[in-house]
Design brief:
Length: about 350
């Protein structure tokens, strides 16, 4: 069997193969509620032969949303809208279902990206929060620096959203600690200028994100999978968060019972410098996997079946996540199965098309 198509166990749940749909914001929610767009978008992937579908950044409060169109999970109605989609995905195919729990911090209250990089319209926007009153860039909001009570509230919001995710039926919960959003803002010295117990040393900067992970771990069912997505580096050199920092963070995450680290990068500084080339972040997933002895997901311009298979075969990561290539071709896993000489689960309704493809 090609390595890409080997199952992967996370506690008592098992990915039928190593292909993960990376979380992708759709900016199509109404007041944070999932809509028919999400049903079609996520439901289609459940028919597409992948191993794990991670739904887009789903925010633990209205204030934590990136845009007014972003998903949320902070009322019974949000929970029910997602539970319906999870039920459909489970009826449709063997892929595991995942949710990404998020808080956008200082990068909240923006417009949908197709309107340009700018704050949300005044009538729809809100005041963002962050570790310090420092904007991401010119033209971005200056966030309100969180006090202890505000931080305590957010920890509880993550806890409640994790409980809701479990009730909605997700198999995997991914905590979003990457891309310059709230948890990463606390980690990175670029955005964290605090001089209390939550700023300064790396240990202090990790304190709030680790409190969130602890709260999620307490309520997330032990038999299901718990992931954390991190940015391995800020891509700004020593003045930012580095791979060495990520290894230290991943050690703490592993000690807290996180099952797998989803290794992404960047997002905290407009000055980041990265060379976009095939598999550009795979070395980070490999470094964290080896140094921490924890399973990892590699992501970033993984587009070719042979490339994906080699990453697993060579022990660089335990799974690969794909975003854009799966938007371009939702049935990428079928193509990969053909290229590598394997077969994936196909729903009965699509069997005739599959035979044609072969
Ligand atoms: C439309 C779109 C939306 C995205 N939304 C999210 C998100 O909600 N959460 C997240 O962690 N990353 C998000 N990302 C980043 C992807 O998950 C992925 O890490 C990145 O696109 C690199 O993978 P790729 O080269 O396969 O596209 C998004 C990417 C795209 C293209």
């Amino acid at each position: 069997m090609p390595h890409l198509f080997e199952p992967l166990a996370l506690n008592s749940v098992t990915l039928p193969n190593r292909i993960v749909i990376a979380p992708m914001c759709q900016y199509s929610a109404v007041e944070g509620l999932a809509t028919d767009w999400h049903m079609v978008h996520l439901g289609r992937y459940a028919a597409a032969g992948v191993g794990l579908i991670i739904a887009e950044a789903t925010h633990v409060s209205a204030v934590g949303r990136i845009t007014p169109g972003c998903l949320g999970l902070y009322t019974d109605a949000h929970e029910q809208a997602l539970a319906r989609i999870v039920r459909f995905m489970k009826e449709t195919g063997p892929a595991l279902t995942g949710i990404q729990l998020a808080h956008a911090g200082r990068k909240a209250s923006m417009s949908e990206p197709w309107k340009g990089v700018k704050p949300a319209d005044k009538a729809k926007g809100w005041v963002s929060v962050g570790p310090s009153a420092v904007a991401f860039d010119e033209g971005w909001q200056i966030p309100k620096a969180l006090d202890e009570a505000g931080m305590d509230r957010i920890v509880e919001e993550f806890r409640t959203a994790a409980l809701r995710s479990a009730r909605a039926g997700f198999d995997v919960c991914e905590v979003h600690s990457a891309h310059g959003y709230l948890m990463h803002e606390f980690l990175s010295p670029i955005s964290n200028k605090r001089n209390d117990d939550y700023g300064g040393s790396r240990e202090n900067r990790m304190r709030f994100p680790l409190r969130i992970v602890d709260a999620v771990r307490e309520v997330w069912p032990k038999e299901r999978g718990l992931l954390v997505r991190l940015s391995a580096t800020d891509y700004v050199g020593e003045e930012g968060w580095t791979l060495e920092d990520s290894i230290a963070y991943a050690k703490e995450l592993k000690a807290r019972g996180v099952d797998m680290i989803d290794v992404s990068g960047g997002g905290s500084s407009p000055k980041q410098k990265l060379e976009l080339k095939p598999g550009y972040q795979v070395p980070f997933a490999e470094a964290i996997k080896k140094a921490v002895e924890v399973p990892t997901i590699a992501v970033g311009l993984i587009t070719k079946p042979e490339q994906a298979d080699a990453i697993i075969r060579e022990g660089k990561a335990d799974a690969i996540a794909i975003a854009r290539a799966l938007l371009n071709d939702p049935f990428w896993a079928w193509r990969a199965a053909d290229a590598l000489g394997h077969e994936v689960a196909v729903p009965n309704q699509y069997l005739r098309g599959r035979k044609l493809a072969v």
